## 1
Amino acid sequence: MSESITVIRESLLHGIKGVIFDCDGVLVDSKDANRMYYNLVRQKLGMLPMTPDEEDFVHAHAVMASIAHIVPVERLAEAEAIRREIDYSEIMPFTYLESGLVEFLDMLREKKYLLAVNTNRTDSMEMLLENFELEGYFSPVITAGKVSHPKPNPEGVHSILKHWNLTRHEVAYIGDSIVDEQTARAAGVAFWAYKNSRLAAHHHVTSFESLHACFMEGPC
């Protein structure tokens, strides 16, 4: 390994004891599933499908904020009733596990890193973890339903730090959206941007395979 790569790697991983993962866009590719879910709500309201900007918004925000963003205020109660009738298990097949994730998680667990999830999902997170056999990797799993203020508020990260008894300097946060960038900044933790070069980050991750290699003393 070259001296420059060694310096980058040591700087990136120095003092890191825990890794926090966003869910959508990081653990899983759920863009198709999210699009289907929210467009189904709009369809039942007699509305047109979401715009690309609206799709980006709902991909990163909690469900209540997302519904409020894509549905007129006078129809929010109706939209919420429709949402609660949707069987999310029928949409789960359109969610895909990120390549290299499980191998990366296995390596981190073997090396005794602490792992957690901080997501703006609510009641579908348990189903997702079970569907992809990811139960047992993460503790805690913080969803929008477990905090008073979802991302980009840093409450979820603070809760994880308290659970782990770690400082903000000992944790890295992997996310793919501006909401994740804002969350990490507000919490004061290192932010690693996943497959999104437009974000301001301490490190840009192109794949879990490349990040795995970095942890295994390869190039970052």
## 2
Amino acid sequence: MNEPLAPGSTIGILGGGQLGRMLSVAAARLGFKCHIFEPGAEPPAGQVADRVTTASYDDIAALKGFAASVDVITYEFENIPTGALDVLEALRPVYPNRDALQISQDRLSEKEFLQGLGLKTAPFAVVDNLADLEQAVAIINTPAILKTRRLGYDGKGQARINNSGDIETAITAMAGAPALLEGFVDFSHEVSVIGARSQDGQVACFDPGENIHVDGILHTTRVPARLSGAQRTNAVLIAARILNALDYVGVIGVELFVTGGGLIVNEFAPRVHNSGHWTQNGCAIDQFEQHIRAVAGWPLGDGSRHCDVEMENLIGDSVRQIGEIAKEGRAAIHLYGKSQARPGRKMGHVNRIIEPGS
């Protein structure tokens, strides 16, 4: 374990979106500075960070300069090019580690890793061409979802196959990219666990949240989730098993399907997670501070939930409702500083404190 970072140290963050923004705010509360590395101009995180480097991930000189200016490096998204990591890891610690990134970047690697831990996943098959897909559908049956193995998020890079007539359309939608066919899971609802692991191996998990998606994008997360005591314990143990197997440092999001035969792991994200935003108003220590504590070598905080919360994403034009939302007495508004609302774009979220039993 490295020596804990002292206040005044600088944390480097790869990616300048809303997650980087909220990490920067949490870091500032603990007395740290943040330096954002982001290819795009005027990123949301840049509005609250101490410094921003605007450069591509293949700009070696910029990467080296960034690394030289920080004490530790983390990231807000998982699709970081391997070449950039080669440069950065030689100069500064990077958390979470490369194994977590590499596994999560490829759906096949992720599924094989999870099954290797003895965890249940949806049935799947590798698909590289039309013949592969036809064979996979014959084995897994329909309905099923064809997904690109890499770079998919918020419902992108996916095609649903309801019957054999959808096969050619689905493979065309992949545009030649390596893919994975996943069989449908008969589940009642989806939950997610936000877990954290420190540099010395301490593990802490937040209460599981119940998620509702609309058009492939997370719409709401509510805590507490509808789970029995045994299911809640199992969900947390699954997250802890993944954290320990990866020798992970930082916060992780683990999505689970609740079924009659137990919990099935959908996927994990090696970063702070949209379904953990409720912690900002439901816990003394939220997921963003927990992540900063972990990568800085500090002890993890107490993430106990002190109230019931529902998080709602403000997507696209729904952000225009902010005037009405502001009139609500128990609604905490979190906007991301994005100037243009586009369909499917996350503009902010609101955490509503829920009266027990409502």
## 3
Amino acid sequence: MAATLKNPFRNRWFWAAAAVVAAAVAWQLGQRLGEDGPPPGIAFGNGRIEAVSIDIAARTGGRIRDIVAREGEAVAAGQALAHMDTQQLEAQLREANAQLRRGRIARDVAVSGVAQAEAEHSAALAVVAQRQTELDAAERRVGRSELLAERNAVSVQTLEDDRARMEGARAARDAARAQVAAVEAGIATARARIVDAEAAIEAAEAAIERIQADIDDSTLRAPRAGRVQYLVAQPGEVVAGGGRVLNLIDLSDVYMTFFLPTVEAGRVALGAEARIVLDTAPDIAVPATVSFLSDVAQFTPRTVETAQERQDLMFRVRVRVAPELLARHADYVKPGLPGVAYVRIDPAAEWPQNLRTGLLE
């Protein structure tokens, strides 16, 4: 399963248009706090509640077997959302298991071959020792025959027969040694078969793990708790690797984005205290903190030549609602709701009464 976090801040034209709209409706915001607007040290801007959006996608291509999640449904982390068809993967898994069994059998046969070759090696060494003993006896016999032949105690024929038997014993000894070398080569071959079989077993086990991981990933699960926003595909459709199936929003990561002019944006500090007032509940202030301040102006005149033009630059600010607060009021703070964000740019500034009463804590 692939889960992709969507970044809503990539489109510069979108934010430029939003900045223009923010400037156009600034006079409406002043109506909330009276004709004079908020007191000094507090800046404000209009925005909309947003949440982190996550695309739930198939890691490998295939057919969607079913989608168990429904649009608008709240889901827990790890909950199954959809299933991909796994018939082909299951067939590959059976094939890999068969290769694993074959490799284990081959390894057992190779181990038996090594044991047999080692036994043959011991027998061949015994034969060499026997042939060496026979050669030693034949050499001693030839030595005695040569002494007796010098004294004419034995015939020349007897001496030649003893010498022939000695050469035969030497040849038998050399043949036994060659047999030992052949058996040793057989042992090396049998051990190489063990290594080859173990490599085949390791490859089969790796294939099983890979295929099993693909099967596990065929169940698309929620990477975190949230709410299903919409379905991208339907059961029966074939999607490519990385193809989106549904979209999830993380209700524990909720924020509002708005714009402030240069003078006010320059006084905003990360972590500064903020309030969010939604249009659906104008009498309730939602506590928040500044979590982002753009270092690039979102709306810039074609040429910036004067101090006034520099003050007209708009900077994007984001205030985030605390996750523990969202956990208690998830049904109240909903993505998509419009409202106004107020930021305390002066730590000594006091919140006006309407931003202190009805505080959602």
## 4
Amino acid sequence: MILLLVRNAWRQLARDRAAQVLSFVVPLVFFSIFAVIFGGGPGGGSRVTGTSRVRVVVVDESRTEKSRALVRALEADSGLRVIATLPEASRGGGRPGEPFTRDVAEQWVKRGDVSVALVLPAGIENSIMSFVGGESVNAILLSDPGDPVAARLLGGLLQRAALRVSASGGGTLDVGPNSAVDQMMPLRFEERPVLGKKAESPMIAFYAAGIAVMFIMFAAAGAGGALIEETESGTLERVLTTGLGMNGLLLGKWLSLTSFACAQILVMFVWGMLVFRLPLLSHLPGFAVMTVCTAAAAAAFGLVLASLSRTRQQLSGLANLLVLGLNALGGSMFPRFLMSESLQKFSLVGFNAWALDGFLKVFWREAPLAALLPQVAALLGFTALFLVLARRLARRWETA
């Protein structure tokens, strides 16, 4: 009898595709995602090789042989990607090929082009290995507090670069990462955050955006399942015989899901404002734009999942697989700045990554509405794509 129960359980699993997805596919997807993030990819590798090098803008205001040697030592470090001159595609301030100024470097950090910038003030060449207090000139790290790793890593690698320059008399010296001299502080620096100065709880914007985007995706997928229930009960067939038609039905469902998602986001951010002092009122225009665009894309995404699934069980399995996978890649579960550059670019295949970037621009970077154009355009494009796909998938109900 016990063996019969075991066989029946396996037979039920064999017939239930949603249960198979939840039991085997979803765990494999999550294992693969986090293995790529933390393990350096399918071929293995260390944590360092699995993530991207820190991109850092360097401003050399000293322009001496010793400061240039310090920049060369930083460029030779495998943990950094140094940008010392303006690239061809640079936005604002200066011509391509010119050295960075302090103001331009600060704008790059504020826009999110880099997480940290290094300024070498005039007189820095006399401060390397000086070990004096008030008379020394400090290097300056212009940082984005939203990425706490970049500034700390740069601060440590800056010490090693200074040791190389000092030990070689202005050239470079190969000092291993585990060398005892790495424990010294040959060059003092001070960190100056350029973002989050006005916010009492600056990281709340990250949490509110990430959680809100993730849960409206779940809610839209679940609410979209009403189409499946109407199909099973015969309600959908009766609706299609009226003058509404499938186009009108999908439009009505999409508008209702969009309004529901807007309400969810609003409740999340109002709660953040009341309890955690999130500065919602001072960012209402950008918040409204991102909320509507994000809700519209999430609602259309929910319709695609509902149109693709034939049963509630299939919808549940598909929603868990796609929603959790997209949010793991999109930044709701793990900061995207800690991922490799290739993985960061790949994560943009999900609309939630664009939505999260937009909310962070509004609340963290305090960007103007015009700066939201890439995120808004991407979200509207995803919305149109999802609606077209949902309409094509819904044809099976018209021909049934």
